[in-house]
Structure prediction request, 150 residues.
Amino acid sequence: MRTIAFVFASSLLACGEKSGTTSAPAAAAATKFTMELPDDGTSRGFAETLVAGNTKNFAPTDADGAAFEYTSFQFRPDGTWNADGYVEAMDERMECSESGAWSMTAADSKTVATVTWTVGETSCVGRDNGTETRAQLTVSKTGIESAMFR
Prediction:
């Protein structure tokens, strides 16, 4: 009987108020950018949302011709980007990838800004290194929602 009373008392003590040594998980740290960003909070908020998302099924150009789509498109906080996708002409689909550098102008809001990305390396048919795309992007936590090419 004493053993049962001891176990019961021990479990009550374990359920009591805890000391201040236990802490809640720390808040997620802000993204560390190693690239230059416009010096305002709105632009930083946009950039954080942009790099946090991984855009799926994005057409990086509005030009006529062969279908060209990034199936996965990711901007990084070091000023680089990477995309996997395909070029489709007639009945042939050719998988490819691209990467390069990106920059942005001061954001219009935490979800809208003009971004420029330049192809540094490509395996996509009909694309050249040095190709530059400039677009006003609207972003969400899942990536690019819309693009108005400039």
